[in-house]
């Protein structure tokens, strides 16, 4: 695991004084927008990534230029030891973690009859086990008053053909969200999920024709694709003071698609 700190501020000078958010899969797409938004909200931000080091470091540089603290940390959420080191890197740079955003995810679509074992296992490993790995560390380490925000998907409600394996991972994430909210009783930590609808990122656009994208964009009554900013705003709300009474919930942010 490489730990690349490009923060303009001396993060270690005042450990614990700034609220700290750790965003998994923040090198691009929704996660990058969430990291930028939480930094603008005043959080010191850990930008986790799997492989896209250049994008993660560019985001850290952008956040640092705007005067906030950020740190890029490579870690594969599938691996429990890498997730532990991710939290340790956050703690040693910023003194602790207050908010975990479980955003890292992958999606492969195919009918069940045509889904091979590797495709199924890969989605379980990243989306479900990866979320479990980070939630387990967060449950042990998050400071009092913290928040855990998991990325689910509106496909858990839509249940379209070809989404079985992916939707199953997100249904599991929703179940763990509600259970962990109860397990953290007494710690003043809220656990919620955001379930976006179709959102304009690589994950959604990959392998879809312009026609399919257009059709899916029109499904919601608001008749457009979600943008990463639409989701980052919801995460910002759940991470902030106005959501202090929201716990164990799944918030679908999808233009009304379901
Ligand atoms: P993108 O494909 O744009 O980005 C995925 C991010 O996850 C990247 O930063 C990638 O890192 C990271 N990642 C992938 N695998 C791992 C891993 N093993 N360990 C650590 N990081 C990893 O996806 P989106 O932004 O679209 O999706 C973000 C989340 O939102 C996902 O959980 C997705 O399921 C969910 N979602 C997305 C929707 C959409 O329409 N886009 C709709 C509903 C939910 P790197 O680039 O460094 O490899």
TrEMBL record:
SUPFAM superfamilies: NAD(P)-binding Rossmann-fold domains (SSF51735). Belongs to the short-chain dehydrogenases/reductases (SDR) family. It comes from Labilithrix luteola. This is Enoyl-[acyl-carrier-protein] reductase. Coiled coil: none annotated. InterPro entries: KR_dom, NAD(P)-bd_dom_sf, Sc_DH/Rdtase_CS, SDR_fam. SMART domains: PKS_KR (SM00822). Keywords: Oxidoreductase. GO terms for molecular function: oxidoreductase activity, acting on CH-OH group of donors. It comes from the Bacteria. Residues 19-197 form the Ketoreductase domain.
